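Entry 12.
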Amino acid sequence: MARYAVYLFDRYLCQDYKDQKSGVLRCAMSRATGGVLLFTLFLSLSSDVWPQTSPSPAPVRDPAAVAAVQNAVAAMGGAAPSRTPSGEVSNREQELAALRKRAESGDVKAQVQLGLAYASGDGVTADESEAVKWFRKAADQGDAAGEYYLGEVYATGRGVPVDYVEALKWLRKAAAQGEAHAQYNLAAMYTQGLGVSKDEAEAAKWMRRAADQGLTAGQFGLGSMYAHGRGVPQNATEAVTWYRKAADQGDGPAMNNLAFLLATSTDPNVRNPKESVSVAQKAVEVEPDNPAYLDTLATTYFEAGQPDKAAETERRALALKPDDPSYKKALEKYEAAKPKH
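Predicted 3D structure (tokens):
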């Protein structure tokens, strides 16, 4: 099973809002840095394994990949060598040599870990093609982590040409074995029609499987599906349930969506403006300079009968995103609602 989360898709967020004409809950799309929230699933790599492009020629050192190599050595019956400034390179060479020996003997866990080392440039020169080679060896043996990572590289074009059909094949194999991140990314591909016809019901099936395993992104995604009736019947109570599960794991977008839904829902079993303020405040604590979160906090203050605080908070959102017309309109509404002295 994969030890590290590598998400193919970078969450897009949208703001739940009531269409004034139809009364239908809708979604205003925007990036995470300037809007509020739902999922439309993800199209840029966000990974704690793959290095980002950098002007520095030095390889990126990823603590997770370092730990993977150390654990591999420990699994052979020996402790990982201690590091000193003078002995670091030698020790790492020994670790990688031991890991490579296991990988070449067919050990699937070592193959995946060696692939991650090449992917992140940890102890070796970063080499995406070499990473793919080792992921493929593990995948060809039916290892879920190898299948997952091989699907990821095909979806993102890391070391191989982008091939969504091939990505779907390997993600499906890993998902069928219960790999939660693969289940989530498979749901994303069905949502967007990448390598397969769009199928929101199938997307919801795989999103639920990821959510049921406790994957935060899966819980957020399933909550969004229920909030907007994507692949499942629209159900605010279910949306709150799944947003809350993700929020309880510290997920800022889930806190934001949960707060908005609690503040604005017309369902008396869901609506709770007082709680919405508390949840929105937690989201802002996670990202104090996220204008979307501040906008949601302003909404919760307003719905809780505090237009003064709503206006003050909306000004903070507007200062971070001064050209957003929805923020300007909201501020006008809050100012107009302030008590006259």
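Annotation: Residues 140 and 147 are 8 Å apart (CA to CA). The chain is about 60% helix and 5% strand.
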